[in-house]
Amino acid sequence: MPDAKRGLTISISWDIKKESVLRRETIDPAKITMDSDIMGDFEADSLDIVDMVMTLEDEFGIEVPDDAIENLRTVGDVVKFVDSHKG
Predict the structure, then answer these.
(1) How many helices and strands, by DSSP H and E, does the chain display?
(2) Would the pTM count as exceeding 0.85?
C-alpha cells in the first residue's frame, strides 16, 4: 500500500506542478514531461523563468534562492526542488 499511496501523491504533485511550471498558452500541457528542458523546449526566456519562480513561491509557499534557479533546467528539476522544499 505505501507504494500505491506514494504513486498517487507523485501523480497529483506532478499534475499541479506541471500546470505551474509555465503558464503559456502556446504550450500544449500534454507535451510537458519531466525531461522537458524549460528554456530549450519551451523557448522560455529569463522573464519567463522569473515568472515561473514567483508562481512556484506563491503556490507552494517556498523560497527559491537565486543560486538554485540556475539548476532548474528541466521540469523534473522543478518538481524535485518543490518536493524537497515544501512543508
Answers:
(1) 5, 0
(2) no
The string of DSSP codes covering 58-74 is HHHT----HHHHTT--B
Catalytic residues: 45
Give pLDDT tens digits for 17-51. Answer: 555 555 555 677 777 788 989 899 888 888 888 88
Task: Give the whole-angstrom CA distance, residue 72 versus residue 80.
Answer: 9
Report the alpha-carbon distance of residue 80 to residue 25 in Å, rounded. Answer: 24
Mention every residue, 6+ apart, whose C-beta is less than 8 A from residue 37.
73, 74
β-pair partners for 74: 37
**% of the chain with per-residue pLDDT over 70:** 69
